[in-house]
Amino acid sequence: DVSAVQRQLEFYFSDANLSKDRFLRRKLEDDKDSYVDISVLASFNRMKALAGGDEQLLRRAVNASPELELSADGTRVRRTQPVGDNLDADADGRTVYVENLPAKSDHDTLREFFAPCGPVVYVRYRCVGFAAQMYDGQD
């Protein structure tokens, strides 16, 4: 599903994720044009589950995204807007920690459940029964 892959890629490159994901942030910093190889993104477990290693599906998802772009040769991905110097300095003020969740909870059900409280930009699901939700900070 192109839209699911697009959402996941946009999440990977979001301020909320990059403020916590040292590996991906380092990849962006190591490239002078802030690109990440599409093969690296395709190797992530969540992306394997969504795209099954189909890099062409990732390319279609990037092309559908207003937030991402492909390199001229189609092998690398970057944000359309540069990453700022102060990634999510207010993250703690917009984070909700939740315990005693149902055992069958996953990222998608948690995002859907908390959506009425505001746009959820990051879900961290550590183990059964515990999660953290980060909101976008708008009223």
State the gist of this model.
This protein is an alpha+beta fold and 139 residues long.
Describe the protein in words.
With 139 residues, this protein is of the alpha+beta class. It has 7 helices and 6 strands, in the order αααβαααβββαββ. Strands 1-3-2 form a 3-stranded antiparallel β-sheet. A 3-stranded antiparallel β-sheet has the order 4-6-5, covered by helices on one side. α1 (2-12) packs antiparallel against α5 (45-51) and α1 (2-12) packs across α6 (55-64). It is globular and about 45 Å long. The mean pLDDT is 84.
Q: Keywords for this structure?
A:
139 residues, alpha+beta, 3-stranded antiparallel sheet, 7 helices, 6 strands
SSE string, helix = H, strand = E?
Answer: HHHEHHHEEEHEE
What is the strand content?
15-25%
Shape from CA axes? globular
Terminal CA distance: 32 Å
Note poorly predicted spans.
none
SS field, number of helical segments = 7
Could you report the average pLDDT, rounded to the nearest whole number? 84
Helical fraction = 25-40%
Radius of gyration: 15 Å
Q: List the strand order in the largest sheet.
A: 1-3-2
Number of strands: 6
Biggest sheet statistics: 3 strands, antiparallel
Secondary-structure-based class equals: alpha+beta
